[in-house]
Amino acid sequence: MAEGEDMQTFTSIMDALVRISTSMKNMEKELLCPVCQEMYKQPLVLPCAHNVCQACARELLGQQGYIGPGGDPSSEPTSPASTPSTRSPRLSRRTLPKPDRLDRLLKSGFGTYPGRKRGALHPQVLMFPCPACQGDVELGERGLAGLFRNLTLERVVERYRQSVSVGGAILCQLCKPPPLEATKGCTECRATFCNECFKLFHPWGTQKAQHEPTLPTLSFRPKGLMCPDHKEEVTHYCKTCQRLVCQLCRVRRTHGGHKITPVLSAYQALKDKLTKSLTYILGNQDTVQTQICELEETVRHTEVSGQQAKEEVSQLVRGLGAVLDEKRASLLQAIEECQQERLARLSAQIQEHRSLLDGSGLVGYAQEVLKETDQPCFVQAAKQLHSRIARATEALQTFRPAAGSSFRHCQLDVGREMKLLTELNFLQVPEAPVIDTQRTFAYDQIFLCWRLPPHSPPAWHYTIEFRRTDAPAQPGPARWQRREEVRGTSALLENPDTGSVYVLRVRGCNKAGYGEYSEDVHLHTPPAPVLHFFLDGRWGTSRERLAISKDQRAVRSVPGLPLLLAAERLLTGCHLSVDVVLGDVAVTQGRSYWACAVDPASYLVKVGVGLESKLQESFQGAPDVISPRYDPDSGHDSGAEDATVEASPPFAFLTIGMGKILLGSGASSNAGLTGRDGPAASCTVPLPPRLGICLDYERGRVSFLDAVSFRGLLECPLDCSGPVCPAFCFIGGGAVQLQEPVGTKPERKVTIGGFAKLD
Fold this sequence. Notes:
Layout: H1 2-26, E1 43-45, E2 51-53, H2 54-63, H3 89-93, H4 99-108, E3 126-129, E4 136-140, E5 148-149, H5 151-163, E6 184-186, E7 191-193, H6 195-201, E8 213-214, E9 236-238, E10 243-245, H7 247-250, E11 260-262, H8 263-283, H9 285-354, H10 361-370, H11 375-397, H12 415-422, E12 434-435, E13 441-442, E14 446-451, E15 461-468, E16 480-486, E17 490-494, E18 501-510, E19 513-514, E20 521-524, E21 535-536, E22 546-548, E23 554-557, H13 561-568, E24 576-577, E25 579-583, E26 591-598, E27 605-611, H14 612-619, E28 625-626, E29 651-657, E30 660-663, E31 683-686, E32 691-696, E33 701-706, E34 712-717, E35 724-730, E36 734-738, E37 749-751, E38 756-758
Parallel strand pairs: 17-37
Antiparallel strand pairs: 1-2, 1-5, 3-4, 6-7, 6-8, 9-10, 9-11, 12-14, 13-14, 14-17, 15-16, 15-18, 16-38, 18-19, 18-20, 21-25, 22-23, 23-36, 24-28, 25-35, 26-32, 26-36, 27-29, 27-35, 29-30, 30-31, 32-33, 33-34
């Protein structure tokens, strides 16, 4: 029984050793120097937290052109006192000042201390090219001598060598690759050397020559981590510099005001963090394996997709080559036909000229005809011959080749095509669209307009995403509504919720994929359903001065003779005409909203609502002029205005004139057409591009808004005991344009309710 338990224990131990050995073998790539690609030998920790062998670091500095005294980049600065032949024997016996003494010297700014070079106003900054991060790191004034050795990494390398049975022969740690077998070791230098390296690093006549050689070994390491500046054991950690420091480093000016903690605290904190992170990774091995499988699948898809892309490009280039070959054949055929035609014409001309030679052709025939003595026969034959001779004579006198020899008209201009072929490149995704905020707005529907930046690759279609920002918060990421494959550069979003704020964005797509989203645009929807109506000029007075557009959405008032006469009677009394136009729809319930734009050059315009019966009663058949002492709201003269009226007024108007809005001290100040508030009780605000009117029939309230920002301008009470309709009044010249419903634009419609939600 005991033997079985012993065997089971032995098997468990062997399995553990096998797992440890496998783990050590798998981490070999973490123990390779990025320069020599061999296991680290006396690794140094660079300021960027990467490691490099000490010999490799010296070699890299030598390649950069830095050569220290004696060819050693890590040696001390050059000075007569620092050379072995002139160094004072007392210098080696000189003791370092006490910390309190050193602190006083540092604060006073006098004296010298280890690490400070007398007269060094601009210390040399040594840059080291890190082979791991491919960046230059600053080593400081002391170069490699100011770097810490990574003793932990050395121990890990030694354990790894022992686990995989590497290193039967100990190699020299300072040889250039390939290193020779070590023959000596130095306890003082803590390194192994071959014969040549030992002589090189222990020159005769120096203190190093007094080092006693030992047998080569890999166990040369200091008992603790020593400060490279003061050769004392490090006891603290500077969080600001992220560097281990000794007692003397703490009192240096370079660490003044820094956060310094004991090394035990830093050890415990870093160990806890590393343990926590490692525990998390070990506890999620299934996730790691799943991600590895996903990456491997991505690699396979990448290989297949890359091969397909190569085939597609090859096919397209072959297609271009085939088109060029076909075009070349057709062009060469055209040149050949032109050449044959010219040669034929030139050959015929040559034959004609040869017939003019003496004794041949036409000349010989003419000579024979001249020998004819029969006059009638001669006339008959010579008439046709004379025409031919005349033509030949004219051709001889005005000689010109029948065809030119130049083929300049067959030259090709391939500059544009060559430029296109030179610029031929892979298709890029479209850039982020730019939403046109001047044309994008929300009314009965949301009209969204955008454009691509200049020089952007084309987009085949677009994707629109939007969501309500004031919707109830839900767990998880914000849920977007999406519409795919929107053609063109504008779209309508139907059925938006009233009184909401929507955020919208657009991105383009082509064969290369989807581009970046545009910047988010926030739009406010009207506070109530939009009321659609037209202007009706049948009610009111002086209809001949009102010009209503054909679509009945715009009206302009043209000032007549009464306004000119009022200018002459300015000091005695002012009588102005009132032109009124109403909407053709009356509201009897619910909430309604509409918007309009007032011409900033209008003299005086009142925009609002009123009871239909009161409006018809007040303006149907009323006189052409009104007096400043007459208020049509009360039906009395101005003396009755001092009485307090509890009932809501039948009218509610906003007064606009000369690009300004007059806001009274209360709602009643704008309830009528001619309310008179003192200057101290009124103020003016700039006229916005569009005005919005929101009518709440049940509450008997009317709100006037800035239709662009939906900022409230004025809220008035209104008598809603009967049908209420929109009204517009003009005193002098003015113009009003109703905002056209978005649904009448011939744009692509996108139903909001039909969007699929996107997480």
